Amino acid sequence: MRKYLLKRVLYMLLTLFLVATITFFLMKLMPGTPYTNQAKMTASQIEIMNKQYGLDKPIWEQYLIYIFGMFHGDFGTSFQYSNQPVAYLISSRLGASMQLGLQAMIFGVFFGVILGAAAAIKHNTWADTGATVIAIIGKSVPNFVLAILLQYYIALKLGWFPIAGWGQFSNTILPTIALGVGPLAETARFIRTSMVEVLNSDYIELAKAKGLSKFEVVYHHALRNSLIPLVTLLGPYTVALMTGSMVIENVFNIPGIGEQFVKSIMTNDYPTIMGVTMVFSIGLVVVILITDIIYGLIDPRIRLEGNGGNK
Amino acid sequence: MKFKKLLAVGATLAVSAFTLAACGSKSSDSGKTLHWEDNAEISTLDPSKVTDVVGFNQLNNVTEGLYRLGKDSKITPGLATKTTVSKDGLTYTFTLRKDAKWSNGDKVTAKDFVYSWQRTVNPKTGSQYAYLFSGIKNADAIMEGKKSVSELGVKADGDYKLVVTLDKKIPYFKLLMGFPLFFPQNQKVVEKYGSKYGTASKYFVYDGPFKQEGWTGSNLSWKLVKNDDYWDKKAVKLDKITYQVVKDSNTGYNLFQSGKLDGALLSAEQTKQLKGQKNYTVFHESTTFYLQYNQTKEEFKNANIRKAISLAINRKDYLKVLGGENTAATSVTPVGLTKVNGKDFQSIVSDKTDMTYNKAKAKELFNKGLQELGKDKLEFAILTDDTDAAKKSVEALQSQLKEAFGDKVTVNTQTVPFKTRLSRSTSGDFDVVLSAWGADFADPISFLDLFTSNNEQNDGKWSNAEYDKLIAASKNASSASDRWSDLEKAEKILLQDQGVTPLYYRNQAWMVNDKVKGIIYNTAGANLNFKDTYIAK
Amino acid sequence: MEEKLKLSPDSFEPLAKGEAQDNEKIAAPSLTFTQDVWLRLKKNKGAVVSLIVILLMVIVAFGSTPFINKSTLVKSQPQYANLPAKVPGLDAINGLNGKIKQGGVWVDAYAKNDVPKDKYFYLGTDYLGRSLAQRIIYGTKVSLIVALVATFFDLTVGVAYGIISGWKGGRVDNVMQRIIEIISSIPNLVIVVLMLVVLKPGMTSIILAIAISSWTTMARMIRAETLSLKTQEYVLAARTLGESPTKIAWKHLVPNLSSIIIIQTMYTIPSAIFFEAFLSFIGIGITAPETSLGVLLNEGQKNFQFLPYQMWYPAIVLCVLMIAFNLLGDGLRDAFDPKTRR
């Protein structure tokens, strides 16, 4: 187990290093300069500014500086926000996105499991069809459309929740719903399928035969076994949610990282693009590792030694 | 039974959230609070480094310089109580008021100006707006790193006298003094915070009507509160201005409708629908959109082709497509920029013959142009960026040109990200590019300088000796009226030759609560000035 | 009492040749895998309806090519701008009779704008006076093209990559998995923006960007399945018989992977449509005069408070399309894997 972990962590670092390298050189392919006021700057000024940001150095040198900085948690200084360290920008913005992502996930999984389980238990009845249609509609309506509808009808017309803003719990409800419908649909579909399969298996028949109550059968045997594979499915999804959704953040005026990221791309703010990309990648590889470990712990059938294949 | 518990907790949470939210809305406004929106985050408060309207607007309300620009960019008193100009117009002596204080208790002195200006022109500071200092003695040389900052033509004579010397006359110099870039900075504070200076409300010091609170450097809401150390605090009527960054115009309008905002910027679509309704307000901007032709290419060197394109554009229909509150351009300098003897400069230079839709004449000129070029067809691409308005623009231009010239023309469109558009314009990698320019100060030279042969922003490389001569002459003109006549002649040459083809002047449409009075919105530079704003009962 | 079996000698006579096989005769005709799947799919009403809906949409979208092309899309008629739907014969239904709610009152927008009486726009018009119905049909076509091309990459690159990775195993597999990990760690948006920079902005670069980032899921699933398939007896048998790996892959792996492939494809299509819509929404998607469902949605949402139909119609079409693909995907999964269907 320890050997396996060590190997995985090493691979993880290698992956991150490669991602950093690739994004760095991809950034350099982007045209244009990072200066907001480029149209009004003279060539000599741009030259001086480039020197300031170290953009006049050869690319390999910039690369080394960047990689070494990263090891110290230094992602450089934003071009767009003058003098603002990227690490600060990300840390101050990540909180809102993570909170929202986590809430959306909890919301989605909670109601998704209920919906999916209900559909599986009442398999092939109107309840099943209803749950399936809800799940599919949830998956089919783009969340930006949903956000606009929620804001207009629930917040403005009915006045139940604040229209936009951040700070109070009530602010988070509508964006959570808009963002959480995706994972809800996904979870419901997944739970339904795997539970139908499990409910038809022999050990459930056995449990029923033993005279266990319906709830115990469903909860102890069916649902639990269905939840395991859900972990692998939802891990990366959670990272994606927590790293922010630009559209939802824009509609509800949420100071999140997703919006920041899109803006940094549009304004050639290379250090910020790189910083957010790295945070995203770190989150992703860590979550993949964790889910693999959890998976191994829960399900003894999975061998952690990896699959060497038989040659 | 964990599952059951979880269910119960979830249900309680959902219910309590609901009830919490239902009683969450409160409205305890004293009638002295203004709720305003901005459409982007503040990038910095450092006056030397601000580059965007959001930042300039903030600075305009939380700091103050020699003058404060009032309605129609009129100069109103700021920190200067008296100004004397030498006969040759090259030396300005400002006497400062003695009762001005920074919010940390320090007095605002002439040294703060000297420090601020030297800091901005210092190439190490990396100010992207430093070019505006050009004309002040030695500024250009300092910016190029050829001279030391102490040689800048600004000196403090005691604490309350500021002496500025110029290399050449700057007729609009006083206007510049109302622009936040020229406001003073407190050396002690700048040095204390070092690289953090201006990156959050608490890392800055204020000498304006308001103080900023609650901006952390990356958040989306903050407020301005009345500054009790401000010398003219009696004139300030608002207690507080709350700001919210609104990126989605639907959200802005929703907030406005529910009374959470007193002002909301409208999108082109909303403008179309809300025009003429109560609270609908138009703010004029000094921004002109125009086409630049790449005149290193044979076909665009031909004046007839350029004129034909201008005449083929039905600006009225084109603006209908674009939506919003824009007006058709008949000149490069926009409406409302400045007045000459009570007459808008724009109306003096306005060239209707070359910029009014005339299909027959356009066709005639186009054929003539083609003949001169020895071609029977013209194919070119219009370069633009990927903003909504830009995309709609090229779409409309494409269909109008096609309609006017039929098979003789093929117009392609190239939509690229904003920054790419800029770098391609600068490097001359385009046929025709849709450009925009906004004035930094209310003077036509802010526009006309662009099209002199050697200007770095003259992307199309249009060149006209007579034009260059007139612009140069205007800078050394002995009297104001000579200067105006030089500028007028120059712009007329530019328009008659269609060196660039102006399309429209951009304006902003807002919904502004009609109880809010006394907002000063200037077309150029820092737009919003809330010093005199109040909320009627 | 003792009962004796009365066996006559003729009981020991062999049966006539034809009779013996009757016992083992399968009453139903023998079915191939495909036929079997088709049979099961036919029983799933939702899937069949979805299939019909998708086919209809494909036929309408692609069949419209001679009538709706770029030049019809460019042509604007500002005098007809922003008109609501007007369908002949539906004068009684507000919202479909040319009336629109303005400030709480239904106003006849056609009469207000002096539109000729016999002019009908079945789904209304957009801000340039272009028929929304035409634009939606064209937009659907573009969205479908984006989805299909992305799927094609999924099928070729993703499947091949997954099979090779799973089949070869060992170091090759390890390296290939790292590559997938890296690709999925770089945010799609960065890839798209770079594509837009390298290539000309427009459909090609968007399709490519979606293609580049979308095949990894397919590759992962195929790899996992290949890993388990390659230890199966029939594959071992084929190997021992000396079949070439290509042939094994083609003859044994691909058919057995087909259910995963088809199901995954059904999920790729909607997510590609979605991603394109998202790109258009943030303004870096398809460029004018081309349009897509995403572009239409984006244009519609800006006007949502005043002209809700401009968002609703494309949203409904997108939803129907997505629901159809999802239901068909579910149906196919059930059909391929009868275990889940009981």
From TrEMBL, chain A:
Pfam name, any one: BPD_transp_1_N
TM regions (residue ranges): 9-27, 100-121, 133-154, 166-185, 227-248, 273-298
Membrane topology: Multi-pass membrane protein
SUPFAM superfamilies: MetI-like
BP-aspect Gene Ontology terms: transmembrane transport
Residue stretches making up the ABC transmembrane type-1 domain: 94-295
Keyword annotations from UniProtKB, A to Z: Cell membrane, Membrane, Transmembrane, Transmembrane helix, Transport
Alphabetized CDD domains for the sequence: TM_PBP2 (cd06261)
Gene3D superfamilies documented for this protein: MetI-like (1.10.3720.10)
GO cellular component, one term: plasma membrane
Subcellular location: Cell membrane
Record-stated family: Belongs to the binding-protein-dependent transport system permease family.
The name this protein goes by in its record: Oligopeptide transport system permease
Biological classification of the source: Bacteria, Bacillati, Bacillota, Bacilli, Lactobacillales
UniProtKB/TrEMBL annotation, chain B:
Membrane-crossing segments per the record: none
GO molecular function, one term: peptide transmembrane transporter activity
CDD domains: PBP2_OppA (cd08504)
Keyword Cytoplasm appears in the UniProt entry: no
Domain Solute-binding protein family: from-to ranges: 74-458
One matching Pfam family: SBP_bac_5
Residues forming coiled coils: none
Gene Ontology BP, a term: peptide transport
Bilayer topology: Lipid-anchor
Gene3D superfamilies per UniProt: Dipeptide-binding Protein, Domain 1, Dipeptide-binding Protein, Domain 3, Periplasmic binding protein-like II
Signal sequence range: 1-21
Subcellular location: Cell membrane
Cross-referenced SUPFAM superfamilies: Periplasmic binding protein-like II
Keywords: Peptide transport, Protein transport, Signal, Transport
Source organism, top-level taxon: Bacteria
InterPro entries: Peptide/Ni-bd, SBP_5, SBP_5_CS, SBP_5_dom
Family: Belongs to the bacterial solute-binding protein 5 family.
Name of the molecule in the record: ABC transporter, substrate-binding protein, family 5
Organism (species): Ligilactobacillus salivarius DSM 20555 = ATCC 11741
TrEMBL record, chain C:
Taxon lineage: Bacteria, Bacillati, Bacillota, Bacilli, Lactobacillales
Residue ranges of the TM segments: 48-68, 144-167, 267-288, 311-332
Keywords, alphabetical: Cell membrane, Membrane, Peptide transport, Protein transport, Transmembrane, Transmembrane helix, Transport
Region (Disordered): 1-20
Lineage: superkingdom: Bacteria
Official protein name in the record: ABC transporter, permease protein
Organism: Ligilactobacillus salivarius DSM 20555 = ATCC 11741
Main localization, broad class: membrane
Family: Belongs to the binding-protein-dependent transport system permease family. OppBC subfamily.
Family annotation (Pfam families): BPD_transp_1, OppC_N
A GO biological process held by the record: transmembrane transport
Compartmental location: Cell membrane
Gene3D superfamilies documented for this protein: MetI-like
Domain (ABC transmembrane type-1): residue spans on this chain: 140-329
